[in-house]
Structures are given as structure tokens and as C-alpha cells.
Structure prediction request, 596 residues.
Amino acid sequence: MFNKVVIFGVGLIGGSFARGLKQAGAVRHVVGIDRSAGSAERALELGIVDEVGTGPEAVADADLVLLATPVAQTGHILASLLPHLGPQTIVTDAGSTKTDVAAAARAALGDRVAQFVPGHPIAGRETNGPDAAIADLYQGKKFVVTPLAENRADDVERVGRAWQACGALVHRLTPEEHDKVFAAVSHLPHLLAYALVDDIANKPHADMLFQYAASGFRDFTRIAGSSPEMWRDISLANQSALLAELEAYMTQLTTLRARLAAGDGAGLEAVYGNAQRARRQWIEAIEAAEAPPPDTAE
Amino acid sequence: MFNKVVIFGVGLIGGSFARGLKQAGAVRHVVGIDRSAGSAERALELGIVDEVGTGPEAVADADLVLLATPVAQTGHILASLLPHLGPQTIVTDAGSTKTDVAAAARAALGDRVAQFVPGHPIAGRETNGPDAAIADLYQGKKFVVTPLAENRADDVERVGRAWQACGALVHRLTPEEHDKVFAAVSHLPHLLAYALVDDIANKPHADMLFQYAASGFRDFTRIAGSSPEMWRDISLANQSALLAELEAYMTQLTTLRARLAAGDGAGLEAVYGNAQRARRQWIEAIEAAEAPPPDTAE
Prediction:
């Protein structure tokens, strides 16, 4: 049970965390702070938070502070709350990149950095803001905690328990592992989807092309509907891992281009077939993990 | 009204065409022919066809013949039915590529090629075979007719009316236009999705990567669950248009790589933002087209 939780950013991510903790009866009092006064008031009105905080002094007697704000603001917010940070307070975040967040935390908190336990909940919806926040957003989803060498084991445990209360499954990676993994399975696909839609939109016959785009194109490009500012920041924050993945992918495309130009059907089919098999195994593994255990299925 | 329709390939595409015509009361008798005797019998059992044809002589007194078979078989099937083709019979197809089909038809049918009207219904499902066939698969979807210079206007009309009876909206492109359009909005995305999944599956830490892949990755790669053989054939059949699109896309990635390496946030955001806007406009246009007309909405 947390006595007081302070959340910076009461939109989808922060608001759903508050709702999840409340639904689990895991928090007594939630204070919300948001750049947008309207969002903070709306979160209060919706019962997501119990109080609107006016500044970083709100963290003074908190058990837990969550930064659910754009990653680029992490250092600035941490620096602002440092003077008010009590020795018992743990600070965590929900950013999509972790090595930059760890570096920002070290720079901002100095010898208090042990109190900052970085993390990343792997969940989202297509909508944003306090009205999009739901108690079960994290139910069955992964929360990746990426502890710093300085963190106390108890504090890492405690952050994990908060997300578990929201229904999440806690995984642990180093910040560097985290950023390599998400460069491959999230950041690169976003860049590729944006690149394709922009490529098509810039062609002289773009209207005709879009007219014939169907459901496969719609799914393939769904992530290109995401916030350009947020994905610019993620791309830059994870620059080196994303560059490495992009280069590996371009090498792969160079191979496929050569096979296509040579009319090498077997060579194309080898790639297509391997991809189809790997994807099917992945989907089967997801479905097996999501199926109710046999004992409770009755 | 068609008196007799013969369908080669009674799976999802051919079977749904038969069901759509029957539901509209637009056909008296449907004959199904399939490489797989099991599929043909199953289509009969399900009432998709009224008769299982045993060979190309079944086309003798047909009004309309649909080839719903892999594109690579088009020439062979057309050659086999030529000796039995009456002067009143129109033949059409449902292949995903059209210039190769047009060339195969000219080679196989010679001076009877005017009787072949190529086309492509833009519809699909994730399942296949006669059991997947449904009467409303084409409802509200596009059917692209790609007439040959040799075709009679009446015959082109007649093929269009058959698909309209299934609920489709008839569009007209030349075979070359068709292949350029679908290289951009369908064939290239398939190649890109296969390439990404194969790239990840071949990494030493593939299991770890797939473990953290989430819904964005799932949507982005959904088309990599498609048949590798079919997409190998489509890639080769539309080789030159697909190569041109792939090269334009690789140029786009080269630009993005340079911007990422230079830490050029504004340059990345320009591409991401343009893509997001273009996609939003496209989705809005689709939704407007799919909304019921105001007069019928009460």
C-alpha cells in the first residue's frame, strides 16, 4: 500500500497508473501535476487524482513519484523536484527509452540517483489525455524495470509491486538491453511506417495510390498515426541502437533487391517463408500466454 | 443473370464470388473446378457450387468463367480451355498482378484473347479454402477491371456487372497502371514486412526480441503472415514496378538514416509529421466513403 503517490502527467499513461492503483486499493492519496491545467482539473473531476499539485514541492512526503511526461523533460523535472525529495521517496518513470533517461537522472540527481528507478510499461491506446485513462490498461501487459547499479533492491521491488497492482507482469532488463530490444521491435517499425507513408504521399499520383490502399496497408501503417514529436524524441534518444537496426534492415533490403532483380524466386521465398514461420510461432506463443490456465478455465 | 458460371479455384476468392452471385440471384448454375478434389467436393457440400467439373470441357456452354487460381497458372489453364471455349463465353480472373496475366492470356488465347477480361477484386480474409468463402466478401470493396485493347465494351461491362452483383464497386485501370499502384500500396509493404520479421528472426537474440514485441509490431507485420509462395509469385510477376518502388523507398531510408545520424530532429519530424497528416486524411476519406449517405441515415 502506498500512502501518497505523485504523478507528473495525468494523461493516458499516468492516469491509467493512478486508476489501476486505486482499483487495486493500493494507494491512499494521488496527487496529479500536469503542464496543462485543464488536464489536471479534468483528472480531478474524473476521480483519477485526489488533488491537483501546484509544483514540485508536492513530492515532499510522497512514497512514490511517477514521471509520465515526454522523455525529453525527465532531467528538467527531476532537477526541479530534487530540493523537495525526502529520503524515503522513490521516483520512477514510464519513458520509451532508458539509457538517455538514466543519464538524465544521473545528471539531475547526482548522489541521490539511487532513488530513481527507471521503467517502461509496454501498453498504449490510440487515444490520449485523462479521458483515455482506464484502470486495466496494464492488465496482462509487460512492465520493464531497468534498474541502475545505484538502486537498492527493495526500491526496485517496490516499483515492480506498484505495476503488479495495476495488473502488469514485471520484466527486468538493463537500460542498454531495453533500448536495443525496443529499437528492433518498436522504434524501427515506426520509422519504417512513417517512411512509407511519406514516400507515397510525396508522389505525384499520391491520391490515386491512397485510393487503392486496403486493409493490409492500413494495418502496416497504423503506427504512422502516432505523435511525430514523440517519435522524433524517441528516435534521437535511442539514436545509436536505432541506427544499428536501420542499417541491418537496409542490408536486408539490399539483399532482397538483388534477389528480385535477378528473378531469384527461391531466394525471395526463403525470406518470406522464414518470416511467415517466425511470425506464426510468435503469435502462437502470445496466444498460449494469453489463454487462461487450464485449472481456471472450468 | 448468368445461366452458367464456371469457377476455377473454389477457395476464398472463387467461392465468395459464387456465393455472392447466388445471394444476388444472379446465376442459375455454378460449376466448380479445383486442383484439390477435396476442395471441390467441399464446395459442393457447402452449396457454393452446384456441380463439380471434371475438366476444361466444362466451360463449353458457360456465360462466364472465373480463374481464381494462382497467377502463375493462368496461361496453362487458358490454353487448356481454349479448345472448348464457345464464342459467347467471357473469361475473367482475380489475380493480384495484371500485366503478366495479360501477356499470358495473349500467348495462350491468340486471336481469341478478346474473350479474356482481366480483373482484380481488392478483398481478402486471413483464412482460406471453401470454408472461408462468404457471400459478402466483396460488399463495398473495389473490383478493378483492367481491360485489354482487344476487349469488347459489352464484355467488360458484363464482367463488371457480375462483381457489382457481389456488392463490389467497379474501378477501371490499365494493367500497367494497376501494377504500378499495387506495387506501391500492397506489394512493397508485403516485402517490407517479410524483410523485418526475417531480419529479427535471424538475430541471435531473436527470442528476446519477439518477447517484447507488442501490438504495434503485430499490426505492422500482419501481412507477413501471408502465403510465401503467393507473394514470391506476385513479386516476380510485378518485378519491374516493385523494384522501382523498393528503390524509391531505400532512397527515403537513406535520407532518414542521414538525418538520424546527424541528430536532425526537425528533419525527422518533417517526415513523421507529413506521414501522420497524410495517413489521417486517408483514414478520414475512407471513413467518409464508408459512412451511410445522409438520406438513408434517417
The radius of gyration of chain A is 22 Å. Chain A touches chain B through 87 residues (CB under 8 Å). Strands of chain A lie at 2-8, 27-33, 51-52, 64-67, 90-93, 116-117, 119-121, 142-145, 169-172.
